[in-house]
Amino acid sequence: MKPSKKALEEAISQKKTLGKYFFDEATQAFFTDVEIVLVIKKVGKKLYKAQSYFFDGYEIWVEEQKLFFEGDEAEAKEKAVSNWNKEPEMFMSYPIIYTNICCEVSS
Fold first, then answer.
1. Which of 18, 60, 66, 96 could, after both became Cys, cross-link 30 (CB 3.0–4.6 A)?
2. Cα–Cα distance between 62 and 49 in angstroms, integer?
3. What are the backbone angles phi and psi of residue 3, rounded to the nearest 5°?
4. Domain annotation covers residue 7
């Protein structure tokens, strides 16, 4: 028997203490509006590299990862944002979908 929506939401609230997470029974996924700000840096003509991100205000560096996004600034930002949920984080075999994501270019 699968856990109830309430049990799933209680379980994730114990593990994920920043933000609120809601389980959608129709899609069988968790959703959250935790603020994520991706930071990319221009490294070439029409080439941007992931530099860091802010997760609910906490900065996390991703220098060791080789994430590149091609295109002009607007295209690179769009690709970075869509990449975030491409392979979603899982909790109890259910995906976590982040809905409040934006991207900035560092100077």
1. 96
2. 10
3. -65, 155
4. no
